Amino acid sequence: MSLSRRTFLLIAAAGLAACGFKPVYGPGGMAQNLSGRIDVLPPVDEEGRALTRRLKERLGLPEAPDMILDADIFLAEEEIGVLPDGSINRYNVIGKVDWILTRDGETVLSGSEQSFTAYSATSTTVATIIAQRDARERLMILLADRITADILARADAI
């Protein structure tokens, strides 16, 4: 490592320390402070179960929850790949989750996250259904990660 690079890293580290920067996942960080404090309302469908499972992985299992996270999932599919014979062979799954975090019935934080993923349709129905389910589960994981990041980024407001 060159001297100028070392100097730059030392100055950058000193600047972060001076501004009060603390890693979210570090000791005493917001992730640790919120772990086990948020309960996610029970899901109503397969996508809800995937979202809830990932949120609990990221936020911790509720041990002594004092906040409740409620999430409404909206999904749509868009045909994006058309073969010469007119059949569809690729789909986008577009997802949106509106969420609200409450404590004693009062809103603490709320937000909306959006993303998409895709899957390919094959010549067999079973393989296409499995690909669709996998795409929806991947989308729920992505949206749960975005919800978690949003909560952790704004955790000082809690």
Automatic annotation (TrEMBL):
InterPro entries hit by this protein: LPS_assembly_LptE, TAT_signal
GO CC annotation, single: outer membrane
Biological processes, Gene Ontology terms: Gram-negative-bacterium-type cell outer membrane assembly
Top-level lineage group: Bacteria
Protein name (record): LPS-assembly lipoprotein
